[in-house]
Amino acid sequence: MTLGWLVGGVLVLLVMRVPVAFALLLPSLMYVVQAEGITLAVVMQRLLSGLNSFPLLAVPLFIMTGFLANAAGIADRLFAFLLGVFGRVRGSLGYVNVTSSVVFSWMSGAAIADAAGLGSVLVPAMRKRGYDEGFALGLTGASAMIGPIMPPSIPAIIYAVTAGVSVGALFFAGVVPALVLAGVLFVHVFVHARRRGFAAALEPGLDRSALVRATLRALPVLFTPVIILGGILGGVFTPTEAAAAAVMYVLLLSAGFRSLSWSGLYRVGLRTASTTGSILLIVSAATLFGWIIAREQGPQMAADAIMGWTTNPVIFLILVNVGLLVIGMLLEPVAALLITVPVLLPVATQFGVDPLHFGIVMVLNLVIGLLTPPVGLVLYVLSSVTGAPFPTVARGALPFLVPLLVTLGLVTFWPGLSLALPRWLGLG
Amino acid sequence: MKAQGRVETAPVWVRALATVERWASVLLLGLVLGLMAAQVVARYLFRSPIAWSEELARFALIWLAFLAAAWVMGDGRHLVVDVVSRRMSRRGRLVLDCLSGGVVLLTCLVLLPAGAGFAWQMSTVKSSALGIPMSWWYFAPVTGLALVAVHSGVRIWMSLRRGSAEWEDRSDWGEGGG
Prior knowledge:
The complex is a heterodimer of chains A (428) and B (178).
Chain A: H1 2-15, H2 20-34, H3 40-51, H4 58-71, H5 74-86, H6 92-105, H7 111-128, H8 133-144, H9 154-163, H10 167-196, H11 208-222, H12 224-233, H13 239-257, H14 262-295, H15 298-309, H16 313-330, H17 333-350, H18 355-368, H19 377-386, H20 390-397, H21 401-413, H22 415-424
Chain B: H1 5-9, H2 12-44, H3 53-75, H4 90-121, H5 134-162
Helix pairs in contact in B: 2-3, 3-5, 4-5
């Protein structure tokens, strides 16, 4: 009963356009005030303990890496190099788009940063070469979803901290699913290019020396995952230190490219700080909320309710996927993770689902909501950086829900995709 | 980033406050970055790990989070679920804006007195590596929420004076981490 009031209160406040952190905080405060045996001191302890965590330090740093990579013009370099690679293929810019996202995702942990950075370069380029605008926008949005799956990933850090699993292991669990998503998008581009007969889109390609030059210019960028993933895997860094190393490396690159001014750096700092403040306030409030849910036996009640309905893990995963897709349409992924993980993970464990596998399923599922109205943040970002009207972006993104949902299905029902790599590396 | 209409029309002291919050947030971010980088360098280059860098970085992160959260509140860019409000009239949105601002203000006012008292009590407890009194840690949420209360109060007052919701004509997006 208490739980019903609590969750109902949060929902009403969310609909009233109360900021997510405060929609969680006020009902939690009311609960603590009326509950016996606890005082508001508990609230302060939970608010602080939610943020007093070493893995969370990686969040602002990886956010900063993404913004820095944007400001340093890394998307332009990648584009020139990949055009040289794919130039002579039919529908080349489609493949360039997806591959750019894969490379960019090694530096960035958020779909929004990827969509902003790549959208401003790739969408105009695709338009100019006669690609359908909706296709260009939708593909850029869909391939930006690789960012939060491929390490580094902000949602993965948040899941790992909330679920108590290793950030490094979850990072590596995301690698294969991210590549699967890229592969499925490649198939989509191939089919689309065949059907539309993108003859006009054939590029002259680069001659050998130009290709070598473009490769050399892009090489330092391609080296980033060696530092981040190699550093974590080799035990050189913790994921948090790898985040600092990534910021330093991208700073070094932008100094080498002479592409970032001091005022540009200050703006990157500002954007990073404001995104950090926005996310971490929710982390803090959600820690209190999650503690109350656990105190009121919420996970057990959810488990009993679902177990009374089905004991089949496949049906459980289908139910979770449908529920999360709806939540993801309304709520930003990090906020949604913070609210749902404390309830769903204990249930998933009872069904025998591995926490690493479940984490990748949840993250992939919730980021799909970034591409659907009404809240779809990536749609807004794409509309803002390309100047395309919001309805055009939303319509363009619609067909790409098919490859995204196909990938979600594969990742959900084939745990090996997520678990094989971390296990092989001795992390899972 | 788009220019924020609200900040231009805000009273001078609110703008000054936002500037302080912004600079403090950026400097704390720099501190977190510097400490983590120094930690790696000290371990590998000088073979002498720093014992206190992690704790100081966590301390900086907590202050960063709450100060930046206050500044983001002043800019009206905290994450919200914008579903029902889109379909409302201008007057309806004004009412909603004041209500949601009121919820934020109420939350802060309920928590602040007891929170500040608790933080004060914790001054005798010290953190493990640096011996920072725990009250300094707890003053981060207290300060942050007090500043949030100020910003949301000003925000309600300004919306009422203008007769329209602060987010009326904004097309930029909130800050998300996904």
